[in-house]
Amino acid sequence: MLFEKTFMAIDLHPEISLKVLQGSKYRYAEEHGFTIDWAYQNITPIYPPDYIAQELKISTNQSILRVANTTYTPEGIVFDYTELYLNTEVYQLNIIKRR
């Protein structure tokens, strides 16, 4: 199970809605003329705050992974910033890296 928080600049995405965010952000990007070029990710083990532990149905003493992801366009504009909180007992994180 995971918990996700996404931040998107309202001036770049004035028509954004919860319905859009529940779908594919990348499909939204394509439909609105954005090209996703690259992302910076920071993966950190943490102990979850109460509200995330409750959502994940775990103890605040159980470590989880926090994945902070900033996605950029080719022009260097931030498309979105997302934080994923992953319960490592039920969620596997796989990373593919290309040169």
TrEMBL record:
This is Mannosyl-D-glycerate transport/metabolism system repressor MngR. SUPFAM superfamilies: Chorismate lyase-like. Residues 1-91 form the UbiC transcription regulator-associated domain. Signal peptide: none annotated. One of its GO terms (molecular function) is DNA binding. InterPro entries: Chorismate_lyase_/UTRA_dom_sf (IPR028978), UTRA (IPR011663). It comes from bioreactor metagenome. The lineage of its organism: unclassified sequences, metagenomes, ecological metagenomes. One of its GO terms (biological process) is regulation of DNA-templated transcription.
